[in-house]
Amino acid sequence: MTDPIQFPPDFTWGVATSAFQIEGAATLDGKGPSIWDTFCRNPANIKDASNGDIACDHYHRYRDDVALMASLGVDAYRFSMAWTRVQPEGKGAWNERGFDFYARLLDALDEHGIAPHLTLYHWDLPQALQDEGGWLSRDTAHRFADYAWEVARRFGSRVKTIATHNEPWCTANLGHGNAQFAPGVADRKSAIQVSHHLLLSHGLAMQAMRAVGAPARLGIVLNQWTADPATDSQADRDLANLEYARSVQWFMDPIFKGRYPELALRAHGADAPVVHEGDFKAIREPLDFLGVNYYTRAYCSAEEPPRQPDSALGATDMGWEIYPQGLTELLLKLKAEYDLPPIYITENGMANADRLEHGQVDDRARIDYVARHLAALRAAMAQGVQVDGYFLWSLLDNFEWNSGYAKRFGIVYVDYATQQRTRKASALWYRDFIAAQRQGRLAASTM
Fold first, then answer.
1. 308: domain CATH number?
2. What is the active site of this protein (predicted)?
């Protein structure tokens, strides 16, 4: 490995997954149905008419998957807990068989010296709570806080960090704004109200976990991007400002400033959320860390049809522009606007049209993507942004939500028919990159 990028000696290197995308075992050992189980029952919702019933069968193969992580030399593993596996109805009785699975997973990670980073919610709300209003109901925020309290009580001393939510923007806008994700609602006003209840649930969960007194660092994971005008026209600049306000600032301002951005509130008009007294006090509970997921930028054009970016690096298999410098620009912008805690890059990676040929997967496009984004990350850190770690998305090819199994984000190829895992070229590159960083660590520690 000859890459010249050098990160700090205590920098964390990890990989990430989520429960519904890899676990399978959809009805095993007392697990209840989630909104994604329900959403997948209508094949029209998923592009390849698939579901998450088996996925990567991680529920049975977790030991092998942890050994895979160890073979890459990662420090840390970010994963989510399936709420319905440990509390099938989202309230009431706890399912000990579900908690036992996560205890076994933590045991395996501990055996290999891999630090667990737990996410409480990665989009798989218990269907029983959805039947009672889901995230449109304030009561769901309180049920989420109860769930967070119990998980922190049981595992708060065994995990490095606990994130409340992963990408609440997606839950609100894709799940309730355009019906692209579960539960399949298409209503702008509902999406905006859901976003507030998600933020409220985050704050209440933070308070509940703090009350437990567990040593895990507590935070939230937000998907974020810069919003760039396609031209210097006033219309494009206004559109870019609004996009940033109703996406990034819409979640960051309540957490760090105790209010919603005025520009977005004016744009929402009568669809603005109902906010109760004391909500922002809860939402503003201090974070120990902020998780940032970055994949691409927003390119804002008021023209019809919209002007498209002239991307020198092309696009991923999701059709997302490859724009690594946007990560530098985003982190510097956040640093200028907010009093930030330490940051983890909790997701970064690309979907690629990978093929297994002669027992190998040559995904050099992914290697280039990751290398460029790591260079962009290091550039932001050199300008004063505190970033404590990087989690590559994803360890495994998996169920990619409404895209089904057609899109592959993993650095490990999964043959879904046989469940055989094959490390791609990117996995071996990442292994060697981490090893080179460790050599730098050793040199620094002996100077």
1. 3.20.20.80
2. 347 (nucleophile)
| Residue 183 is assigned to a structural domain of this protein | yes
Q: Tell me the three-class secondary structure of the chain, residue by residue.
A: CCCCCCCCCCCEEEEECCHHHHCCCCCHHHCCCEHHHHHHCCHHHCCCCCCCCCCCCHHHHHHHHHHHHHHHCCCEEEEECCHHHHCCCCCCCCCHHHHHHHHHHHHHHHHCCCEEEEEEECCCCEHHHHCCCHHHCHHHHHHHHHHHHHHHHHHCCCCCEEEEEECHHHHHHHHHCCCCCCCCCCCHHHHHHHHHHHHHHHHHHHHHHHHHCCCCEEEEEEECCCEEECCCCHHHHHHHHHHHHHHHHHHHHHHHHCCCCHHHHHHHHHHCCCCCCCHHHHHCCCCCEEEEECCCCEEECCCCCCCCCCCCCCECCCCCECCCHHHHHHHHHHHHHCCCCCEEEEECCCCCCCCCECCECCCHHHHHHHHHHHHHHHHHHHCCCCEEEEEEECCECCCCHHHCCCCCCCCEEEECCCCEEEECHHHHHHHHHHHHHHHHHHHHHHC
- Burial label for 159, CB within 10 Å (0-12, 13-18, 19+), is buried
Average pLDDT over residues 121-129: 99
The residues assigned a catalytic role are 347
Q: How confident is the model at residue 440 (pLDDT cuts 50, 70, 90)?
A: confident
Residue 65: closest CA among 404, 410, 417, 432: 410
Is a pLDDT exceeding 70 seen at residue 1?
no
Owning domain of residue 131: 12-446
**4 within domain boundaries:** no
* Res 5: pLDDT: 84
What's the confidence (pLDDT) of residue 444? 55
- Is 362 domain-assigned? yes
282 falls within a domain = yes
Q: Mean of the pLDDT values across residues 310-321?
A: 96
Number of compact structural domains in the chain: 1
Using left for φ > 0, alpha for ψ between -120 and 50, and beta otherwise, residue 282 falls in alpha
What is the residue-averaged pLDDT of the chain?
Answer: 97
d(CA 379, CA 433): 17
